[in-house]
Design brief:
Layout (H helix, E strand, L loop, with lengths): L1 H18 L11 H26 L6 H25 L7 H25 L1
Pfam family, one: DUF6142
InterPro entries: DUF6142 (IPR046140)
Keywords: Membrane, Transmembrane, Transmembrane helix
């Protein structure tokens, strides 16, 4: 009887290592955070494309490039607001809100940088 109990204890000790790897939680990925990340990606990609196309055109930006940059600026402001709102929610995973805030901040700073260079 004692041998059986010792075997069970040894097996349970070996399995306790695997039990610690899994965490069961009620946390979820917020929809606003996911949308913020998507808007940040769209803003960053479109701003990089606008700069590259303007560079290939000899520094002359067409009106459609300016319109794309303006839409990217609106997307990045909305995405930043969504990221901050989703970061304040309770019981969430913070990956997408943090990623959305970072991507949208990069886009906003890039737009400010372009505007400052334009006024120089």
């Amino acid at each position: 009887m004692k041998k059986l109990n010792l075997k069970k204890i040894k097996i349970l000790n070996k399995l306790s290592h695997f039990r610690e790897k899994y965490v069961f939680t009620d946390n979820r990925h917020p929809e606003k955070g996911i949308m913020s990340t998507i808007l940040g990606l769209l803003s960053d990609v479109s701003l990089v494309a606008v700069v590259l196309f303007s560079y290939r055109n000899g520094g002359q930006a067409f009106m459609r490039y300016a319109a794309a940059a303006f839409v990217a600026a609106i997307f990045s402001c909305l995405g930043l607001a969504l990221g901050i709102m989703s970061r304040m929610e309770k019981d969430i995973f913070k990956l997408f809100p943090n990623l959305g805030i970072i991507l949208n901040l990069i886009a906003v700073l890039f737009i400010i940088f372009i505007l400052v260079l334009g006024f120089m």
